[in-house]
Amino acid sequence: MVTFNIPEPAVALGSWVVVTGVSGLVGSHVADQVLQAGYKVCGTTRSRGKNSWTEEHFQTKYSSQNFELVEVLDMAVKGAFDKVVAGASEFIHVATDTTGSNDAHLTIPKVVDAAINALETAAKEPSMKRFVYTSSFFAATFPSPDKRIAITQETFNDEAVKRTWLPDPEGDVVYAASKVEAERRITAWVKENKPSLVVNMVLPNANIGPIISSAHQGYPTSSRWVKALCGADYDADFNVPAQHFVNVQDDARLHCIALAHPSVESECIFAVAGPVKSNAIIDTLSGHFPQKGYKRVLDDKEDLAVFEPTQRAEKLLVEVYGAGFASLEESVLANAAELVN
Q1: Band of the pLDDT at 216, cuts 50, 70, 90?
Q2: Which class for 187: exposed (0-12), middle (13-18), buried (19 or more C-beta within 10 A)?
């Protein structure tokens, strides 16, 4: 088992960390890794009643003294986080609008306002030392299955911003544009206000790996890919869109590094392990579970984008956790653990 090892963390172990969207795929893993590292977590949710399972799960695993759940109905409302941040030392803003809405006029302001509201509130709290924003690789680029492109720390997905204001944009385009605009607004706010707290960002790709509680979460977002290819609702015609992946636990660990590593300041950490496509997932599943029938995809493209910043991310993982990015095989098998008898 990998363990968190930063001899002199930027924020003392035992401090309270706010994690928004704690019931989601990424948010629940971020909370899990933060708790494993030795911090306490105040998780936020839009519905305490619906997501009270997180309280039971994390308090049972890490004790009732180390986790609390708070309801925040609308993250974009001024003052929404005032009580949440009291006494906290770090703020990890994971929650975002993932409904796939193609209404840019509704989605983008909501995502940006929530991010800035969280940052402003965190910056006003005297005990707050770090703020981590969960962005997305989509803020840097769309997948590029037909042309090799190089992605750097300075790359922005300007194409998404242009396309989002065209008639009837796709939900993924609006989502990407919302992350671009949120990143830019955060950067501008920090430059203008010069807060005392450190602000870092994590840009994950498609998350594959174990589910904290499939009974309560199901298989959300990209974790449903493995389910579609090996679960009870197996879809022989399902095709994973060409892009890159990251093991969801590695994604969460990079969030821990962003909040605690003393040399990680004002950084964008790319949580991108490698390319993923349908046949690669099918090869893993058929090799371990040959009893199921699998239909290979004929036109199975691979994302040719090259993410240069991933070298930095993997180096940090090795330094802090003793291992680099988990392989696609390991991630797929963890994702499928409860799906195959």
Answers
A1: very high
A2: middle
Query: What pairing do the DSSP bridges indicate for beta strands 243-247 and 274-276?
Result: antiparallel
Q: How far is CA 70 from CA 81, 124, 128, 153, in A?
A: 10, 19, 18, 34
Name the CA dihedral angle for 73, 183, 39, 55, rounded to a multiple of 10 degrees. 30
Q: For residue range 30-45, what is the model confidence (pLDDT) as tens digits?
A: 999 999 999 999 999 9
CA dist 110 and 96 (Å) reads 9
CA 193 to each of CA 85, 199, 237, 288, 317: distance values in angstroms, whole numbers, following the listed order = 19, 12, 51, 54, 31
Cα–Cα distances in Å, from 147 out to 95, 118, 275, 305, 311? 32, 37, 14, 8, 21
Burial, 216: exposed, middle or buried (Cβ in 10 Å; 0-12, 13-18, 19+)?
middle
Residue pair 230/162 in contact (Cβ under 8 Å)? The answer is: no
Which of 222, 221, 238 minimizes the C-alpha distance to 279? 238
Contact 78, 117 (CB under 8 A): yes
Question: Can you point out the beta strands (E) in 46-142?
Answer: 67-71, 90-93, 130-134
107-144, pLDDT tens digit by residue?
Answer: 999 999 999 999 999 999 999 999 999 999 999 999 99
User: Residue 257 is encoded by which pair of tokens?
Assistant: 């590094």
The span from the first CA to the last CA of the chain, in angstroms, equals 25
Q: Please report the DSSP string for 294-315 in residue order.
A: ----SS-----EEETTHHHHHH
Nearest residue to 180 (alpha-carbon basis) of 201, 207, 150, 149: 201
Q: Which of 226, 217, 222 is nearest to 292 (CA)?
A: 226
Q: Domain limits of the chain? A: 16-210+246-274+305-325
Q: Is the pTM of this model over 0.85?
A: yes
16-210+246-274+305-325, CATH topology level: Rossmann fold (3.40.50)
The rounded distance, in Å, linking the Cα atoms of 110 and 120 is 15
